[in-house]
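Progress against Task 2.4 (sequence-to-structure conversion) is shown through the following example record, which the project officer requested during the mid-term review.
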Amino acid sequence: MNKLTVIKVGGKIVEDAQTLKQLLGDFSNVEGAKVLVHGGGRSATKIATSLGIESQMIGGRRITDEDMLRVVTMVYGGLVNKNIIANLQAMGINALGLTGADMNVMRSHKRPPVKVSAQVAGTAEDAIVDFGFVGDVDQCDGRMLSQLIAEGVVPVMAPLTHDGEGHLLNTNADTIAAETAKGLAPYFEVTLVYCFEKAGVLRDENDDNSVISHIDANDFKQLVAEGIIQGGMIPKIENALSACQAGVKRVIITRADQIGKESGTTITL
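Structure tokens generated for the chain above:
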């Protein structure tokens, strides 16, 4: 089975010309088939502000009303995605920008209102939050993506999906990456790479050199019990293990400038 790498990068990296150029250079050097998944939240916030649209965040998640949906569609599916595509074409990579609506690649349902803890919501008591036009993924058509890849096309996925009824939905980029990796797992030996600000999962959050090189399901339980893995890293690793259970070979958590290098934290079953 041929190897494929799905790489997810945050908006901070792709929204700065210098870091984007370095990222895409490293990405272009990744051997074999590949897919890039990107965010773009900072640009969405900036453009929304310029249009007089207030950005509302709960626990780091964006509330997406009709006006904000228009903004994220323009920014994620347009400005950020096409800027990446143009730069990849300049590097000789035949890339194609996609949202989940294109070719029905990824379908979602609108997230129902959910209960959020008082700490996360910033309220005196737990609150029921309606995130608006936010999508939770139901399915990914890996077959269609695999056919594109077989033709030498490099998909670049924007964090937007659709519900099959004519509505676009804002969808978490980490989720897009995981679902893309799962969808392609029957066709390739898939490695999923999450890039963030640290060199990997740290044993000591104050020591950037304390990277834990490997974590499996048993290690994860132990590290959580010891309080070494906590906060937002818990759902990130839970999602990584879920991807592995769905057939993804391994998940790597590392810095963007370490793409393609033997570094970071590798997560397997």
